[in-house]
Amino acid sequence: MFNNTWANVKTHKTALWLTLYGLYFAILKIVIVPFGDDQFWWGPAGRFLLRHHFYTLSDQQYIGGSSNGRYLSNLTMIFSSHHPIVSYLIFGAFSVLLVYLLARLVGKSKLILFLSLLLPFTLSRPFLTTTWLWYAAFVNYVCGMVFIFAYLLILKNDYFDQSKFNKYLPIISIFLSLCGGLIVEHLTIYQLIVSLFAIGFFRLKKHRYRLHQLTYLLGAVISARIMFSNGSYWVHTSYRNISLSTTASWQIFAQTSHFWLISLNLILILLLTGSIFFCNYQRTRQTFKTTLVMSLSVVFAIYYCLSNLYLRNHFSLNTFAPDISKFLQGYDSLIGIFFVIYLIVSTVWLEVDATTKFSLWFCLVSCVILTGPFLIITSPNSAREFFGGVLFMYLFAFLLIRQLHFTRPNLRRFRTVMASLLSLGCLALLVANVQNYHCFLEHSSRDVVPGAIAEVNQVPHPSLMPNGDLYTTSDGVRYWQAYHRSDFSQRLFKLDYPKNND
């Protein structure tokens, strides 16, 4: 009886943490300055595309890039931008769901839950700014990964944890795949691959498959068919360019992609190298292999700490990547390739149970599937496309951390430290966004025109805005004019632009 009571207390305590976490992000969304696609979907262009089923090539520079089959995310953006309270609820709820699902994929561990809660505050600046702090990108990339992680948790509970089968799983699974497949293209393709893999894997290992796997596949096929039936994918536009040239792929990787995928993710790199080091250190018998991996862990950790000290002084708000010489770009790219090889070799040599080993390989392969296409897509090319792959590397690190042995006093101290870091991270991010918000409100209240923003009028923390607060758009001018005509209580439920501008 006492054990059941204590378990209920811990469950309610966790629920309270998650509720406060979601409430924090809902409040944070109020002071995040909207930009770009946020205002595009709110304005006449969004209504125009809605009426034309999200397909038009009448103006490739302005509308053509937003002609796509992301029907769920587009509709979500249009509706929630006109009803701000919906955007606050979505922002809070999906922030909680992502970190909670990430923790549950690793297992029931308070340590991992705390690490997951810290996720947004450990992201590199390009990912934090162009996913979590940009609502349009948040809907596409954060919300999209929630649907992916939710189904992976179903598979994990079904195969590894042998959970009792739920009769509603087939309905839940088709819902997840229908929603997940109508958000962003590479997740649509990924869930098709996962659905086929799950059926084949269960058939091979269990000599059967589940009904929910079939319904997930059905939903994945239907959503892919709906998404890619949009005509924008079958005509050439200036927005989408693909090159199969190895030279072009290397240039993309060296100039920008490897920074977003590897170099700038310092906290993730330290989690990876640290967990790999201690997993080998805790082995009872040290060999040449373990010594080599441990040495490489230290070398990579030191290199990326020093390189980030240098790169932070050359950070560009135009690209959210360092602006350095081609020689240094190429050098850092090669180190990045060696780091990937180090991760692969470490995974091969790690002595962990079969379930963990399989999960680690699944994370690595998922990262490759989600990020690989963006090495041949020359445009658009930005950090946010790599977000899903990087999330799987966080999952990789958390799986290894779960293998480490902590004494109870050290574990308790570690949790206290993480709770303190979480509180500081929440406070710092909120204060910075509040400062940006009030500064932006002040200069947007004046008569402005589209174009560059004078440096004296820029917000205190421009790196927290997806465009670096370098310019304003015609959509932005119209948005802030409507914004200033109403107070908070009036625009909480409805914020519209004058219809004569439509």
TrEMBL record:
<dbReference type="InterPro" id="IPR045691">
    <property type="entry name" value="DUF6056"/>
</dbReference>
<feature type="transmembrane region" description="Helical">
    <location>
        <begin position="331"/>
        <end position="352"/>
    </location>
</feature>
<keyword id="KW-1133">Transmembrane helix</keyword>
<feature type="transmembrane region" description="Helical">
    <location>
        <begin position="291"/>
        <end position="311"/>
    </location>
</feature>
<feature type="transmembrane region" description="Helical">
    <location>
        <begin position="259"/>
        <end position="279"/>
    </location>
</feature>
<feature type="transmembrane region" description="Helical">
    <location>
        <begin position="134"/>
        <end position="153"/>
    </location>
</feature>
<dbReference type="Pfam" id="PF19528">
    <property type="entry name" value="DUF6056"/>
</dbReference>
<feature type="transmembrane region" description="Helical">
    <location>
        <begin position="15"/>
        <end position="35"/>
    </location>
</feature>
<protein>
    <recommendedName>
        <fullName>Teichoic acid polysaccharide export protein</fullName>
    </recommendedName>
</protein>
<keyword id="KW-0472">Membrane</keyword>
<feature type="transmembrane region" description="Helical">
    <location>
        <begin position="359"/>
        <end position="380"/>
    </location>
</feature>
<feature type="transmembrane region" description="Helical">
    <location>
        <begin position="165"/>
        <end position="183"/>
    </location>
</feature>
<feature type="transmembrane region" description="Helical">
    <location>
        <begin position="386"/>
        <end position="404"/>
    </location>
</feature>
<feature type="transmembrane region" description="Helical">
    <location>
        <begin position="216"/>
        <end position="235"/>
    </location>
</feature>
<feature type="transmembrane region" description="Helical">
    <location>
        <begin position="85"/>
        <end position="103"/>
    </location>
</feature>
<keyword id="KW-0812">Transmembrane</keyword>
